[in-house]
Amino acid sequence: MTTVKIKFRPSTVDGNEGSIFYQVIHNRVARQKKTVHRLHSYEWNKDLSEIILPDSNGNRKRYLSEINERIQTDIRYFHKIISDFEHNTAHYTADDVIAAFTMNIPTKYLFPFMEGVIATQKTLGRIRTSETYSATLCSFKRFRKNKDLPLDNIDSDIIIAYETYLKNNGVTPNSSSFYMRNLRAIYNRAVEKELTTQRFPFKHVYTGVDKTVKRAVPLKAIRQIKELDFSANPPFDFARDMFMLSFYTRGMSFVDMAYLQKKDLQNGVLVYRRRKTGQQLLIRWEKCMQEIVDKYETSQSGYLLPVIRPNCKTEERKQYIYAAHNINRCLKIIGKELRLTVPLTLYVARHAWASIARSKNVPLSVISEGMGHDSEATTRIYLASLDNTAVDRANAQILKDL
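The structure assignment produced for this chain is given below.
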């Protein structure tokens, strides 16, 4: 026997709106599904588990009536899912019911539609895509103050207003474009599913990619970072070591470093595949690399570095994200202390390796192969904004001769 109940959770702050959620109970196991529906405590009948509509007509009554209609649609769909499970599946759980509802909810509203797409991406193993969509949804919810809207209401005015909101909150053009491209991809999915009509609402906002701001540091700065003594400050010591190991390994990205296994290092050669592209790279293992690895205890793990711990209850990807956040936080403080001209992050090590290699006249083809780029064209784009020192010297010489 499976039941679905409509529940109201009041806000912990007096005067604020509470939220509606659904509770699915199967074999005495209860699971919850949050909704975006918000209302005040006095607008909810606890005994009947339903919304209390005001007597007078107005925007609030229309708003509550719309929520009530959507709730009834959701409950009907829950019952359909449960009926399908009962007739076609010998065993299912409350989690299965919630998952089926989230992935296939037949809605024409943006928030639950995006949640469904995110759930589908996770099921398909596209974790990074699901994370970028989740970040976009959170950003757009903040813009909308958590008030959902029908897909049919998404037009140029709303998207332009969202872009203005991002700009006023200090979001850079590239980050704003990131959100816009993700939101556009979601919108186009809704159009493909015939949940709305294509109105091209993104045609008046920026969806390009600005030239990358210089993020490289010179070899002198790399030496300074290497020589810093953090023996009394383990978090900063670890952050510096991961930065240097990335630089030593030709700018290896931290996600690749985090997932390196001990078996990847054999006979003095590290062999791994880039998680971004799947390309296989080989790196000759040097003494400076081994010195960093030897500093950390990983005897109970198959991983080369102490980033992902198999016995930890937190899932691997969250461990990697948490570690990257802490490392970059420490590196930014280190960068400020050294008075570097760019915020110091793990990604700076990759930029620095490419820039320094270029300054030493290393052929473009070698840099491209070392960084794992698919083509030299990618490397040219990558290097274009890294280091203007040579151009600046030439310009100074020209001006000097005037």
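Interim note for the steering committee: Strands lie at 2-9, 18-26, 29-39, 44-45, 50-51, 265-266, 269-273, 280-284. The first strand starts at residue 2 and ends at 9.
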